[in-house]
Amino acid sequence: MTLYYSIVFALLLLEMAMFMVLIVPLPFSARRKLFRFLATSQIVAKINYCVRITFIFVAVLFIDAFQRMMKIKAESAVTETHQGFQDFRTETNYHAKKFYAQRNVYLTGFTLFLSLILARTHSLVLDLINAQEELAANTDAGSTDMATMKKQMQQQQDEYNRLSDELAKAQSAVSDKKSD
């Protein structure tokens, strides 16, 4: 494997490790601290910038590997139709070229695909953290709101009971006057 495909492979392994860090179940406070650090750190921002540039090169490598794979298939089709494989070495050489071309396509393709998945997962986890923070803030504010609502409900209940007692007295007074 050439140096640049070895680097792509290392990048793929790094992406896989980062993905595992994203999806590992952590306590909310630890996850929030980790993602706040990732969002605010200047070092992480510079690394992210370099990785984005690297993905441009990976995309170029993907296109190149795909074109090579198609070229090898086309050469094979021409060779097979005109004369077939001459000997075992030619056939082995063709299959080796085809294998390496396909390997490079898959390697670069999976690296690009995982980068998209990683970016989307990161944004979803950030949205989740923000929603959990909002929920926690609303729950804290909701507990004082709940206490206020309970107090209002009790006052309304007391007022209702007072008015129903007055109504019962008034109705009994009216019924007493009618019976006299």
TrEMBL record:
<dbReference type="Pfam" id="PF05529">
    <property type="entry name" value="Bap31"/>
</dbReference>
<dbReference type="GO" id="GO:0006888">
    <property type="term" value="P:endoplasmic reticulum to Golgi vesicle-mediated transport"/>
</dbReference>
<dbReference type="InterPro" id="IPR008417">
    <property type="entry name" value="BAP29/BAP31"/>
</dbReference>
<feature type="region of interest" description="Disordered">
    <location>
        <begin position="148"/>
        <end position="180"/>
    </location>
</feature>
<protein>
    <recommendedName>
        <fullName>Endoplasmic reticulum transmembrane protein</fullName>
    </recommendedName>
</protein>
<keyword id="KW-0472">Membrane</keyword>
<feature type="transmembrane region" description="Helical">
    <location>
        <begin position="6"/>
        <end position="28"/>
    </location>
</feature>
<feature type="compositionally biased region" description="Basic and acidic residues">
    <location>
        <begin position="159"/>
        <end position="168"/>
    </location>
</feature>
<dbReference type="GO" id="GO:0070973">
    <property type="term" value="P:protein localization to endoplasmic reticulum exit site"/>
</dbReference>
<keyword id="KW-0813">Transport</keyword>
<keyword id="KW-0653">Protein transport</keyword>
<keyword id="KW-0931">ER-Golgi transport</keyword>
<keyword id="KW-0812">Transmembrane</keyword>
<dbReference type="InterPro" id="IPR040463">
    <property type="entry name" value="BAP29/BAP31_N"/>
</dbReference>
<dbReference type="GO" id="GO:0005789">
    <property type="term" value="C:endoplasmic reticulum membrane"/>
</dbReference>
<dbReference type="GO" id="GO:0006886">
    <property type="term" value="P:intracellular protein transport"/>
</dbReference>
<comment type="function">
    <text>May play a role in anterograde transport of membrane proteins from the endoplasmic reticulum to the Golgi.</text>
</comment>
<comment type="similarity">
    <text>Belongs to the BCAP29/BCAP31 family.</text>
</comment>
<keyword id="KW-0256">Endoplasmic reticulum</keyword>
<feature type="domain" description="BAP29/BAP31 transmembrane">
    <location>
        <begin position="1"/>
        <end position="136"/>
    </location>
</feature>
<keyword id="KW-1133">Transmembrane helix</keyword>
<feature type="transmembrane region" description="Helical">
    <location>
        <begin position="49"/>
        <end position="66"/>
    </location>
</feature>
